[in-house]
């Protein structure tokens, strides 16, 4: 076990050495994906914003009172949906990062393990715009910046941690089977509905609530709301924090081990 952990740390350390290349590739990927056409970035923003607007219009009457504190439903919704969109983009991008860059895989001196990380950072640039939208809505609704907003980088790191492990795992498996795309699609669809994006954790009976945190996005979504709405620190629920870190590190370890094991065979398949 110690050898696995030591090997994983070395694996991550080697990627850190390529940080300049990772950033350059991330910027280039963002330009190609969103700035390659006149409406590229607008379309990327339009789809999730249209979904938010639709949900808000349909459910604003029924959900206009979220809990006992009368939180505006629109703010509650975007605080849940924005991190989910970022998470889903990172997972999908990481899964396809290797197969979509097969020309780089065959280069002997190229560190293929940075590809899922490139997609995560590329998607982060778009997520920054959504964070500005959340901040604007929060201020408009009377939720002004507080010291709790400073903890937002922690939740961004949480998304980074969980999606990097998933990206390495799914990206490596995807090289050998297209079925991984279908599996991830089903998991993301299911995950969307079992994540409290437009419903409350408190609506689940307390004795079953602990099972919600098997889904790591529950902690992150609630964290965004604690940051922008409820003014709670990330360590306020220490059990939820430890639960998340446990699963995130397990996912990261599995991702590293899987990618290292399958990496030597990528060029043979692609």
From TrEMBL:
What broad taxonomic lineage does this protein's source fall under?
Bacteria, Pseudomonadati, Deferribacterota, Deferribacteres, Deferribacterales
What's the chief localization of this chain? membrane
Its membrane topology is listed as: Multi-pass membrane protein
Q: Where in the cell is it found?
A: Cell membrane
Q: What is this protein called?
A: Transport permease protein
Native organism: Seleniivibrio woodruffii
PROSITE patterns from the entry?
Answer: ABC_TM2
Taxonomic superkingdom: Bacteria
One GO cellular component, as annotated: plasma membrane
Residue ranges spanning the membrane: these are 38-61, 73-99, 120-140, 152-176, 183-201, 238-259
Q: What InterPro entries does this protein map onto?
A: ABC2_TM (IPR013525), ABC2_TM_bact-type (IPR047817)
């Amino acid at each position: 076990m110690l050898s696995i952990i030591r090997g994983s740390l070395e694996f991550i350390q080697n990627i850190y050495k390529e940080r300049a290349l990772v950033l350059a590739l991330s910027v280039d990927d963002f330009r190609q994906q969103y700035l390659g056409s006149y409406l590229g970035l607008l379309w990327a923003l339009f789809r999730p914003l249209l979904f938010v607007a639709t949900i808000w219009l349909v459910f604003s009457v029924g959900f206009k009172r979220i809990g006992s504190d009368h939180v505006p439903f629109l703010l509650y919704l975007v605080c849940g949906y924005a991190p989910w969109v970022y998470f889903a983009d990172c997972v999908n991008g990481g899964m396809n990062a290797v197969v979509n860059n097969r020309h780089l895989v065959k280069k002997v001196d190229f560190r293929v393990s940075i590809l899922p990380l490139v997609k995560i950072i590329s998607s982060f640039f778009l997520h920054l715009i959504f964070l500005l939208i959340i901040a604007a809505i929060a201020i408009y609704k009377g939720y002004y910046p507080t010291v709790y907003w400073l903890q937002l980088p922690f939740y961004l790191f949480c998304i980074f941690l969980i999606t990097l492990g998933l990206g390495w795992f799914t990206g490596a498996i995807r090289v050998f089977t297209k079925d991984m795309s279908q599996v991830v699609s089903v998991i993301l669809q299911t995950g969307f509905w079992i994540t409290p994006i437009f419903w409350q954790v408190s609506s689940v009976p307390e004795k079953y609530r602990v099972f919600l945190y098997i889904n790591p996005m529950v902690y992150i979504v609630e964290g965004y709301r604690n940051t922008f709405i409820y003014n709670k620190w990330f360590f306020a629920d220490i059990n939820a924090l430890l639960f998340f870190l446990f699963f995130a590190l397990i996912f990261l370890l599995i991702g590293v081990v899987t990618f290292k094991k399958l990496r030597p065979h990528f060029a043979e398949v692609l």
